[in-house]
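[step 3/7] fold_predict: job queued, chain A
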Amino acid sequence: MTQSSPQIWLDQLLEAVWLVDETSLVILQANAAAARLTGRHVDDMVGSHVMGLAATPQDLAFWSEPSQVAAEGIHSFTSLLNTAGVLVPVERRVSRVALPDHASAVLMVTMLDRSAQDATERELETLLSELRATLDSAADGVLVCSLDGRVRAFNQRLAQLWDMPRGLLVERNDAAVYGHMAGQVADAAQYSERLAAIAREPMQDSTDIVQLRNGGVLELRSVPQFSHGQPVGRVYSFRDITRQTEIQASLRLASRVFESSLDAIFIADSHHRVMRMNPGCERLVGPAARTFEGCMAAALFGVGSDPTFMDRVQQGWEREGFWEGELWLPRENSTYCAVQLSWVALRDDEGRIVQSIGFMRDLTLQHAAQKRIEELAYSDALTGLPNRLLLSQRVETAIQGARQSDTGFAILFLDLDRFKIINDSLGHPFGDRVLQLVAERLQACLRQTDMLCRLGGDEFVIYLHGGDAVVAEGVARRVLDDMLKPFMLDEMGFSIQCSIGIALYPQDGATLDDLIKQADTAMYRVKDRGRGNYGFYQPQMNANLLSRMQMEHAMRQAPGQQRMAVHYQPQVNMSTGRITGAEALARWTDPEFGAVSPGVFIPLAEESGFIVTLGAWVMEQAVREAAVWMHSGSPIMISVNVSALEFRQPDFVDRITRLLAVHQLPPTLLELELTESILLQDAQETEHRLRVLARLGIGLAIDDFGTGYSSLAYLKKLPIHKLKIDQSFVRGLPDDEGDRAIVSAIISIGQAMHIEVVAEGVETETQQAVLQQMSCDHYQGFLCAPGLPAEEFRALLSRPLPLRAQGTRNPSRI
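[step 4/7] structure written:
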C-alpha cells in the first residue's frame, strides 16, 4: 500500500507519534518510531484505543478524564510497556492539532525514548553518590569553591571540624558558612587575611596552620581546581593535627626536660647498654661519663660484674615496671656519691623491653640534712646541748639499769635568776650568747657520764649518773660557785646567779617527768627563800605548791566576788595634825584562807602577773573614792602604790588620764607611790613617763626609801615630790641610833632637795615626837589609824583630830 503524504512526514520523525481522535480517543495514525518504541506494527495500533499506550496509573487516570482535559495538553515523563514486557521511560507530550481532512480535532501524542538518557543520569547519580560517599568518608574536611568564592561542595568531616550547626548545612548561605568558620578561629583577622592572599594566587598551592578557639589545631591545604587547563575553583582540605601537635609539643618538652633536668638521666637499649646521658647525668658521673656510653648501665654503679643486681632489677621490672633503690656511684679520686636510682622499663606492644630510662638523684645533701635533722631532734639548736628527748632516752636507760643494780641517780633543775633583766635591757641576741656561755660553764662542772640538757629559755636540767644526795650537793655547790665567777662578753663583765632544785631516783619519782617536776618544785622553794642557792625536794613541797595554786586562783576571783576591798590609811601633817592624804591599801578576806596578809598575796600577784589587774582595780577604787571626798567638801590627796610591772604597761599613762577624766578628779589629788627599782629599769623610758605624769599634776612619791639600791642620782633628775621612810627604820625610834641616823639623813635629803617626807609605821607618841623634832613633814600609822574601810575613813574625815592623834599599837600591821 502506497503511503500517503502525512504518513511519510510522520515516519521521518525520530519521535514516536500517534494521532488520536479527540472524541473517541482512537488512534488514527502512528509512525515508524512508534512501532519501534512499542514493538507493535503500525497497522496493529491504528484503530485501537489510546488507553493501550497507558502503562502507569497516572496515564490511565489521564486518559479517563473528559476529552477537554486531554485537549488542554500535557508534558510529562512516564513509562511505556513494549511487547517485550519492558517499561520504557519516555518523555511524553499531548497537544491538540487540526488536520485539513479531518472534521474533528485530533490529539497528537509524542514520546521520546529516554532509556539511554536515564541510564546516563543514573550513572552520573551513582558517580555523584560515590563521590559524595568518598568525600564524607575522607579523614580531612573538604571545601570546594569556585573562583569567585561560591561554595560548590563540602563534606561532613568539614562540618564536624568546624562544629557547623545543622541549620547551616541545609541552607545555601555561603556568607554564613564563611562567617561561622571565621568565628571559630582564634585569630579571625589573620585567618581572613590569609584566605584573601590565597584567593589572589589562583594557580598556587598553599599550606597553613589554623588555631581554633576551642584549642584545636587544623592543617589547611589549598590546591587549585582545573578544567581544560584553566583554574575554575579551589579545593580546601582541613586536617585535624591537634593530637600530632600535642605529641610534638610533648616530645619537645620531653627533650627540654631531658636536657635541663637537674636529675641525672640515662637511656639504655634493650640489652641495657647506655645509649645517652643528659647533662645532669654527665655532671653527676664526672669526667669519665663519656666512657660509659655503650657499656652496661650497671657498670655506672660498680656492679657491672654482679649478676644478682640485674636479676633484682629484672624482677622489679616484671612486678611493677620499674626498680628503685639507693646505690653508691663511684666518683673521681676514689670517692663515692649516694644516689637514688629509679630505673623504668619501656616495652613495645608485645611486651618486649625496647629501652629503659634511669633517673638518678644525688642524695648527698639529703643525707647531710637527715644527719642534721637527727642532730636537731636530739639537741638544743642554740647551745648544742642534748634536749629533753635525748635526756629521756638516757634516763630511761639509767632506770632500766637501776632496777637491776639497785642504784640511783640525781636530777638537778637549774634556773637563772633574773635572767629576764638581761633580755629586756641588752636584747635577746645578747641573752642567747649569754646562754651559750652558761652552757659551756655548766658543762665544765660535770663528768663525762653526766648529761646537761637545756629545756628552753634559761632552764637547764642535769642528770648525775649514779649520783646520791652527797654527789648532788657537791655538784650543786660547784655549779653555784662557778656561776658566780665573772662572765665577759663584748668587753662587758657581769655575773649570773642561779637557783637549783634537786630530786633523787627512786625516792622522789619513778619517771623523768616526775623527777623534773619535783626538782622544779624544789627550785621554786629556793627562789621563794631568796634565790642563789640549792635545795632538795621534800614531799611537803607539793602540798605547799597546791595550796599556792589554790590561793592564786582564789585571789584572781576575789575582786569580782567582792572579797577584795580597798582600805585607806590617813597621812597626817606633823605640824597641824590634820589629815592631808590617804594611802590606798588592798585588803583580802577569803572564806577558805581567811584574812590574807598583803605580805602574802602581793608577792604572789607580782609573781603570777596578776598585779597589773589588781593594781588597776585598786587605782579605780581609790580614784572613785577620792572624787567622792572632793565632792563632799573634803578634798585630800589619795596615794596609790604602783608595781614595776604595772608601771611598764604601754597604756599606763593613758589609763590614768582617762580614769581621772571619768571621775572628774583633779590630777593634783592623785599621788603614785613608786619603788626605787622602777626608777632604775629602762631609765630613759621611765624618766620620760614620770615627766609626763608630773606635767599632768600627778604627785610622785618614792615608797620605802632607803631599802632599795640607795642611788640618789634620780632625786636630782626626776620630778619626785615625796619620800616615804620605811617603817623598818621608824620602828627603832627613838632608841636605835642607827635608825635615828638613817631617818635623820632621809629627812635632811628631803629638805635639801625640797621634797616632802612621810614617815610610815608611826605607832607611838614618842616616835611622833622624835620625827617632829627632826622636822619630818607627815606621818602615817596606827598612832592616827590603821587602814580603814571607805565608810569609816569618811567618818574620820568629818571629825577633827587632836594635834597628837591617839592610836592603838598593832605591831602586826602591814
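[step 5/7] annotate
Residues 803-814 have pLDDT under 50 and may be disordered.
The longest strand covers residues 336-347.
exit 0
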